[in-house]
Amino acid sequence: MQSVYTARHGLIAQQRRMDAVASNIANVNTAGYKSQRAGFKDALYTRMIDPSNVASDANLMQGSGAVLASTYRDFSAGAPILTSQKLDFYLEGDGFFAVSDGERTMYTRSGAFAVSVQNNQNYLVTADGYYVLDERGQRIALPQDVSGLTVAEDGTIDLGNGSSAKLRVVTFVNKDGLLHAGNSCYLATEASGEPAAGAAKVRQGQLESSNVDISLEMTRLIRTQRAYSIAARVLSTWNEMESETNSML
Amino acid sequence: MIRSFYTAGTGMLVQRDRMDVVSSNLTNVETTAYKADTLVHGRFRDMLIQRTNDPGSTREERRVGPLNTGVHIDRVYTSFAQGSLEQTGRSLDFALDGEGFFVVNTPDGVRYTRDGSFSVSANGYLVTAEGHFVQGENGNLRVNGDGFTVDEAGTITDAEGRTVGTLRIVTFDDLNGLRKEGNGLFANAAAGQARQSQAKVVQGALEGSNVDVASEITRLLTVARAYQTNQRVLTMVDSSLQKTVNEVGRV
């Protein structure tokens, strides 16, 4: 009987979905977090009788369960939260800030930036210490005093000492192809395409809230749990039937 | 009596196959646009039982009557009933309201699907989760990102208001001629020529599975019990035979 493996596929798929739901619920207050959704597809089909004779007319295709096909991230904007902090930035519209951990360039919508001092030089960094990059892909050096720092809609930072820098704001043709690197940061992949200039406007003194809809996640939690117990029920029924088979001997 | 061994045996075999189909439905209760399968079973042709050694009787008098020798699986029937639409708000999610299929170009040829959870390829084309090109009226659709809108008829308009193309939505005269291939795809085995469908395209929504959990669970229980019953018949026949072999001769 195929059903034991079918049930197993079902259990695994629902477990994966539970991981996604749990991650969403845990990040309900993480600035710039984008909720994820698990998408299922039906697994392979085989002919019940005579698998080689596919030309025969009657439909005898039997499924083998469900698989997690992909997780989709919802990149819609979270609501802006007013913080009035000089170094908090909110992207209004489609776009990502470009940041670097020194080796890789990553992309994030979380604009909770801070100042990092290195060799008596101040740099603009993310909450996790990644350098925020400017238009030319360089780190942004800040003056000692950031109280006069202002940012224009197009991402130009007036550093308050007469000089300026422009934040790099990009977007991607296929945001589903971005690889989540943790800390609300994403890596560009072959699937996402090259970064292109983003149209988002930069707002200072605001942060983007998580776009997790907690009531939707609770609904998903319940549905996942039910689907899991249904698959478990299939497994226990299979077990019952096979013990009947066994008792024939 | 030996025949009943096989009759009960075929009963068990069919229930095992039914179990496979029911469990596939039950694990796909949360699968996008899944269509429930039902295994239809038929019985073997009746046989006419006739006495072979009854001297003096006519041919008609030797007849005992018809005997059925069990069941076999006949075919899988897929229900194409509409699943409920679920709002997702994602601009790359599409659901079809009505009878119809999206057309997808795969390496194995043209396939049909109702699962509209699409993506955009790095080159800007509309693709499925597996990367197969979604077909418009004039071939592949280049949408360049997710900032586009789709109306009921499937016409895609980009952010600047230009028409990019129209989603190709087709249907068939005989939906039972479609064969499932997994990943939500259907192949046309004997469904006839594809023709334009009147189904409405809904953007930002997905179609749920059309599995009715209550009736599938009922079926699951029925299958388990029917299997048990057939097993009991088989063991009863076995114990009768045991008596025949070991005890009848002892007199």
Explained architecture:
The complex is a heterodimer of chains A (249) and B (251). By secondary structure, chain A is of the alpha+beta class. Chain A has two helices and 21 strands. Chain A has helices at 3-26, 214-246, and strands at 36-42, 45-47, 61-63, 66-73, 80-82, 88-92, 96-100, 105-108, 111-118, 121-126, 131-132, 141-142, 150-151, 156-158, 164-166, 169-171, 179-182, 185-187, 196-197, 201-204, 206-208. In chain A, strands 7, 8, 11, 16, 17, 18 and 19 form a seven-stranded antiparallel β-sheet that branches. Chain A has a five-stranded antiparallel β-sheet with strand order 12-10-9-6-20, with no helix packed on it. In chain A, strand 7 (96-100) and strand 8 (105-108) form a beta hairpin. In chain A, helix 1 (3-26) runs antiparallel to helix 2. The longest helix of chain A has 33 residues, at 214-246. Chain B has helices spanning 2-27, 213-246, and strands spanning 37-43, 47-50, 63-67, 71-78, 85-87, 93-97, 101-106, 109-113, 116-117, 119-120, 126-127, 133-136, 139-140, 148-150, 155-158, 163-166, 169-171, 178-182, 185-188, 195-196, 200-203, 205-207. With 251 residues, chain B is an alpha+beta fold. In chain B, strands 7, 8, 12, 13, 17, 18, 19 and 20 form an eight-stranded antiparallel β-sheet that branches. In chain B, strands 9-6-21 form a three-stranded antiparallel β-sheet, with no helix packed on it. Chain B is built from two helices and 22 strands. The two termini of chain B are 21 Å apart. In chain B, 24% of the residues lie in helices and 35% in strands. At the A-B interface, helix 1, strand 1, strand 3, strand 4 and helix 2 of A face helix 1, strand 4, strand 10, strand 18 and helix 2 of B.
